[in-house]
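Each record in this resource describes a single protein on a pair of labelled lines. With that in mind, the following record should read easily:

===
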Amino acid sequence: MLSIYLILMVLFALAMVPIPSLIKTHKRADKQQQIEHSQLLQSLSHITRRHWRLHAQKLCDPLYSPAELDSTKEQIDEIMVLLQARINYRHCQHLENIIAHWQALSHCEQLAMLRHHHQQILQLSQQVTE
């Protein structure tokens, strides 16, 4: 009986050894994901500012070529796909609101509403990174 107890204790002690290293690995991976997430939101803020300037220019200038605007829209769409994947992994209401404002922009042609949606995207992305 005592030998079974000793064997179980040794097995338990051996099982506990790799757990701290696994915890460190998970913490490192979480930190890396958090850094990538912050960088993603920072690039979203930068591109959103550019998109706002280009979109406002398009509305004010009838001869404006939308090629650069379309390029920034594609970049933001790519970021939105990555953000959507993060929502599927870990729910975040701010990210859902960012995506909702981006979707509302595609149906908007008034300068005041464009400004509102762009500002909301910028504010929400800043709140998420804090």
User: Anything to note?
Assistant: Residues 50 and 58 are 12 Å apart (CA to CA). The mean pLDDT is 84. Helices lie at 2-16, 18-60, 67-89, 93-105, 111-129. The radius of gyration is 24 Å.
